[in-house]
């Protein structure tokens, strides 16, 4: 795993991040690494179904999943606490260097997640991460590593450019037929969600106040797997 990055954030890219609240580092992670991570987490899923990971990760067998594909492939919360590879990527210098350049401050790792999002899975309603992490002063930051090509067909990401400049909004109930999470925020007037198509190995970095989310995976056989970590400025003093 690389401990340095050749990616240098340009003045134009920093200006774009400050304007829109997000930045895509194209090809930051190699094809070999994304393949390794996919194989690693698919193996962890199999072990979770078999009960080999205990409280680390549990995934019901399909016959026990009530015909809900996301119950059979639940997201993995905080794998860095028990999985060395997840910890290594959470602390990867390539993430760190981009985050520090975008944030203008040293950053601290806060949490990790893995999403399988298999064919037929619901999406995640539009939301703001800092509503949940409550980092202050400032905001959390996300590094969203796409392990598969992610587009609108297989439930790729949508972001609302400029929404990091508004306050954290109070959510309302989401449509359970489209979202596996129960809360959703409305997009303020004058702003609009845009698709954020990613190739495997691309990393989407975004401010915790950016409204973002995804819609159902309508493909027949394409997963939309992603490894996501959240960080906070070292100068912040509060987090949920």
Structure in words:
The structure is a single chain. With 240 residues, the protein is an alpha+beta fold. Helices cover 23% and strands 21% of the residues. The protein has 6 helices and 12 strands. Strands 1-10-5-12-3-2 form a 6-stranded antiparallel beta sheet. Strands 4-11-6-9 form a 4-stranded antiparallel beta sheet, with no helix packed on it. It is globular.
β-strand percent reads 15-25%
Uncertain segments are 1-5
Helix content: 10-25%
**SSE succession:** HEHHEHHEEHEEEEEEEE
Structural class: alpha+beta
Quick one: biggest sheet?
6 strands, antiparallel
Tally of extended strands? 12
Rounded mean pLDDT is 96
In short:
This protein has six helices and twelve strands. The protein has helices at 11-20, 31-49, 69-72, 84-90, 93-103, 130-133; strands at residues 22-25, 76-77, 107-115, 124-127, 141-146, 157-159, 172-173, 183-184, 194-196, 203-207, 212-214, 226-233. Mean pLDDT is 96; it is low at 1-5.
Secondary-structure blueprint:
Layout lengths: L10 H10 L1 E4 L5 H19 L19 H4 L3 E2 L6 H7 L2 H11 L3 E9 L8 E4 L2 H4 L7 E6 L10 E3 L12 E2 L9 E2 L9 E3 L6 E5 L4 E3 L11 E8 L7
Question: Which key phrases capture this entry?
Answer:
240 residues; disordered N terminus; 6-stranded antiparallel β-sheet; alpha+beta; 6 helices
